[in-house]
Design goal:
- The chain has three domains: 239 residues, Rossmann fold (3-Layer(aba) Sandwich); 63 residues, no CATH class; 99 residues, no CATH class.
- The protein has 17 helices and eleven strands.
- Strands 3-2-1-4-5-7-6 form a seven-stranded mixed sheet. A two-stranded antiparallel sheet has the order 8-11. It has a two-stranded antiparallel ribbon with strand order 9-10.
């Protein structure tokens, strides 16, 4: 396939400014988490909670940049029979990814300096999981890129993707347009970078939309040039709404399994961020919102919230791949530090959980005493049917159906918030998903 005309400029950008800015020597101090690539999330959202990562798996990191996703996946799969293949158009980015992997003593099965538009199953084979974060929206024809990824995806495979959000990046496009006008006639990236830095420095205290005093402070950081170019001076950038993502995936015969959070526990975007009923208290409005088809329902929530700047989600070849409480043989577990902290709070008597969403909307979710006590017993080994039976036995005077509803409702809320996942209890322990066990080379500074 011939490269689109813009690709040379994009390649030159990432050769000069590999993104994101990273240093191999920092690998001894911290592990950067690629949230979409947490194995527990992949298992829950893409494989119905039944993927054994101690069995062979082939993973493609498509457009791997300086290696965040590759390093995180490789670290989680250390000692497992996994093949990881890295592809990127930038030799400089690939060199940085290699150096980071070497610093950790990790290996990659194959390094490919090239475009995802040239992926061939004859050369690379098929993959059970493909990571492609922040890449497709920089192509002139994103559908062509997705089609190429689909060709190397196994029939039972899944993808972890991220595309820019149309409404949440309004301020970015405001600044992009301003920069394009100020840089009229300038063809050299370094010259446009100089102009952009001057503009941001002067305008940061003026209240211009999208430019803040915090940005002025960042101008002093050594990684800011890389960020500035990728965000405000990029040659190609296409945002999406939720319904556009559904149509985009359908063009390649893929299904949107579920949205997930991109920024980590503290800056979450969860399934509930795409639920418009959270924004209403009037029953009629809630009912109208709930009755919309899923793509339009998610569009409505995105408009109401206006804060989702990045859509992170899983795409699958088959529908209904998300682990569900409808399967009572699955075991719930808390997959992250925040989830474990929440369980400890339940044991101490917590009955309400206040959640602040990306939009700034705050909602409080309550749990009955029985539901809280049952959730506190979640350990990744007890299946749902066991937990429900324990709850029924603990309240013999209560109506059994009401007990089941209370417990399952509490689980469902936590699942939608990303605090609780489901898995086959017969599978090997996912201890490698525990923040404390992923890196053993020294104290960690978790960056999300």
């Amino acid at each position: 396939m011939n490269e689109p005309s813009f690709l040379a400029e994009v390649r030159a950008q990432y050769e000069a400014f590999p993104f994101p800015f990273r240093r191999p020597e920092d690998e001894s101090q911290r592990l950067i988490v690629s949230e979409v690539d947490r194995l527990s999330k992949i298992d829950h959202g893409c494989f119905s909670g039944r993927r054994d990562f101690e069995q062979p798996i082939r993973i493609l990191v498509a457009g791997g940049g300086t290696g965040d996703a590759l390093v995180f996946l490789a670290e989680q799969l250390r000692g497992c029979p996994a093949e990881l293949v890295y592809v990127d158009i930038s030799a400089a980015s690939m060199a940085m990814a290699k150096a980071r992997m070497e610093a950790r003593g990790l290996t990659c099965s194959k390094w490919v300096h090239g475009s995802i538009l040239d992926l061939s199953p004859d050369e690379l084979g098929l993959f059970q999981y493909i990571n492609c974060i922040g890449v497709l929206h920089h192509l002139a024809e994103p559908e062509a890129g997705l089609s190429c990824l689909r060709r190397v995806l196994a029939d039972d495979g899944a993808m972890g993707l991220m595309l820019y959000g149309r409404h949440g990046r309004r301020h970015v496009y405001h600044v992009q347009r301003m920069m394009s006008l100020l840089c009229t006639g300038e063809t050299r990236l370094q010259d446009r970078l100089k102009i952009a830095r001057q503009a941001l420095t002067e305008l940061s205290a003026s209240g211009i939309v999208g430019i803040s005093p915090e940005m002025a402070a960042r101008l002093q950081h050594q990684d800011f040039d890389t960020y500035l170019i990728d965000t405000y001076l990029h040659e190609q950038d296409r945002p999406y709404t939720a319904s556009e993502i559904h149509a985009f995936l359908a063009s390649a015969g893929l299904h949107l399994a579920e949205f997930t959070n991109f920024f980590g526990d503290k800056g979450r975007a969860t399934a509930l961020d795409y639920d418009p009923t959270l924004f209403f208290s009037h029953d009629d409005l809630m009912q109208r919102a709930a009755q919309l088809p899923e793509p339009e329902r998610q569009d409505l929530a995105e408009i109401l919230g206006s804060s989702i700047s990045m859509h992170a989600f899983y795409a699958t070849t088959r529908p209904d791949t998300v682990a569900s409480i409808a399967d009572p043989t699955l075991a719930p577990y808390f997959p992250s530090t925040l989830g474990v902290e929440f369980r400890a709070a339940l044991e101490q008597g917590l009955r309400e959980l206040e959640v602040v969403f990306q939009s700034g909307l705050s909602r409080t979710f309550g749990f009955s005493g029985l539901a809280a006590a049952t959730l506190a017993m979640v350990d990744g080994r007890r299946p749902i049917h066991t937990l429900v039976n324990l709850a029924i036995q603990a309240a013999p005077s209560e109506d059994a159906d009401r007990v089941v509803h209370s417990v399952l409702s509490g689980m469902d809320v936590l699942i939608q918030l990303g605090l609780l996942h489901l898995r086959d209890p017969a599978l090997p322990s996912l201890s490698l998903d525990d923040d404390a066990t992923i890196w053993t080379g020294g104290p960690l500074n978790w960056q999300r």
